[in-house]
Amino acid sequence: MHSDQRATDLRWHLEDIDFSSIDTARMRMRDDIFLLVCSASFVESGAETYAHNLADYFTGDTEVGEWLNEHWKVEELQHGRALKTYVQHVWPEFDWDSAYGDFFAEYVKLCTCDELEPTRGQELVARCIVEMGTTTYYQAINAMFDEPVLRDITWRIRTDEVLHYKHFYKYFLRYRQQENLRRWHVIATLWRRMAELRKSDADIALRHAVAWRFRGRGGEAPAYAVIHKQVCELMIKQYPMDMVVRMALKPLQLNARLQRWAERPIASLARRVLLR
Asked: Which Gene3D superfamilies match (predicted)?
């Protein structure tokens, strides 16, 4: 499928967003907004490398491969362009390309097939957790800030991420049967992926956003640990933990009683690893 055909399949386009209506004077001094949006723009813009690895991993599965290349990757890259455009519109002096270059040089080292799960079904569980993280991240940002254009962008992206989760979950159900995956396989994957979330791309992106945001400012730049704590404290106020738990537990296919029993420890774990 050609790129122009793929573009027409998108649920929304960059041209749908009215960046000119942003009150830039009000937003420019908001370091918190900058760091959350800029770091997200880095991660989304790096999707092509990871998508290539996933497509290779699913070689022979035409349905999954075509969806990854023609929908998931295209939509993730559009997310990156929308967020980058927002950053460049509000903070035109910020050297996004150089900052992204530093981020990508570190991030690309994580994007190897060795980092994928041992089976396709387990990798699809891991993908569900990643989509859970992005869905809830954008929903939190949407609830935190009242700037209309940012809310428009984050809700569009959040909606895309929910649909991505549903696709990965659908493919997981198929591979669960093919690979005869047991619940303990799924639990092991959930545990690994949840524990890795704060050590992966999001943390790398935030570090580079912080480094470049405060570069050249007068006085000593704030310590990254201080900034990281402030951002997490800001996020925790609006983070939809109920949604985190529902999306994290769904691949386990628990009955209602078991799910109620598991919700509290899963919520506690999720809060620690996502918001610490």
From this structure: Ribonucleotide Reductase, subunit A
- CATH number for the domain whose boundaries are 25-275: 1.10.620.20
| Banded model confidence at residue 198, pLDDT cuts 50, 70, 90 | low
Contact (Cβ atoms closer than 8 angstroms) between residue 179 and residue 124: no
Percent of the chain residues topping a pLDDT of 90? 63
- Short-list 169, 174, 163, CA closest to 252: 169
Q: In Å, how far from its chain's centre is CA 150?
A: 16
* 140 or 194, greater pLDDT: 140
CB-based burial label for 23 (10 Å; 0-12, 13-18, 19+)? exposed
Closest-CA residue to 231 (of 198, 265, 264): 198
Neighbour count for residue 98 (Cβ, 10 Å):
12
Q: Could you tell me what percent of the chain has a pLDDT over 70?
A: 91
* DSSP letter assigned to residue 28: T
